[in-house]
Amino acid sequence: MKHNKSPQPICFWNISGVLLLLFFAAWSTVFCSTVTGQNINSTVRRPLVSKETSLKDEQNFDAYANLAKQAAPYLKFNRLIKSVVKVCQPTVVHIEAQKSVQKRNGGLTRIEEAGAGVIIKHRGKLFVVTNRHVVADAKLSSILIQSHDGRFFRPTDLRSDRDTDLAVLFTSETKFMNSRIGNSSKAEVGDFVIAVGSPFGLNHSVSMGIISAKGRRDLDLGDSGVRLQDFIQTDAAINPGNSGGPLLNIQGELIGVNTAIASNSGHNEGIGFAIPINMVMKVVIDLIDYGRVQRGFLGVSLDSKYSATKAKSIGLTTVFGARVTAITPGSPASKIDVRIGDVILRYNNKRIENDSHLVNEVNLTKLNQKVPMLIYRNGTTHRLNVVIQARK
Fold first, then answer.
1. 113-133 burial by CB neighbour count: b if 16+ within 10 A, else e?
2. Out of 230, 243, 286, 356, which one is annotated catalytic?
């Protein structure tokens, strides 16, 4: 019988082989560490390299997460700007005007003037407002208007005002979005603004900046003949071709019409000017309703050389105001006893900066409107009310 058969030797060798392999593996690890000048603990520290890398990754992640957190308010503002552009761009048009101009040698040459315009609504009808210099001397058939969606049309009538460099184009088009009119008197220095136009023929281009100043007057605008000036100054990029385009606040409201730049190169240098929308709408509505601008008339001549020295000599501590040097007989000023030497400090509840400021305000006053004035005379102030008449 084979019940007492002994165990097979192969089992012993299987176990011994495993133990032997483990022994050699441990020995080789110690040996290799010793040969390379390392101790066994170095094999434990090697994974620290990957931990350091992981730590750097975590630090990078935290840094970008911190940037994202800081950028969140600006991204919100950025979305607002994009929304304003999206809503308002359809109210802006590109204008091309073919015109013949006089050469210096007496001949005629044909040029193309490019600019922008903004669509407004008055009495249920649509009109395009732009600068006079964009369309001046061009025939209606030579003026082409392109909408934001690529449609072309020509104006049916054109009326303009040289003193403010404004023009209004009549159109029979009805399926356009009109701009929302803001209040330029509420705009303040430091407010963000957006300019839209066609600089260098690149229509519907958008730039952004702030209002740098208000009430800029007495600017030398060459041969444009802009007599009535009360510009909003902005650092939003305005270049040739932006003329007539809108200046918008971040609510998408129209607060000005871009008109001119101050530049030695003829290109943007961070100083652009826009006509305040309150002035624009007074002029444009008069042009639409009456065919001409109805100017207010006070009937005084003013001292253009009125200075701080003169103001101090008559007892004033500031140079604000407009000093009267002559009065027209039978004028509104003569009827309320305005006198030579008076300094008009306030007109229609506005502080008067200088003589040109008063001229602007009077010219843009509605006819037959009673306007309060504050004048300084012989050391005391007097309140008067004047009814503005039409300039003859």
1. bbbbbbbbebeeebbbbbbbb
2. 243
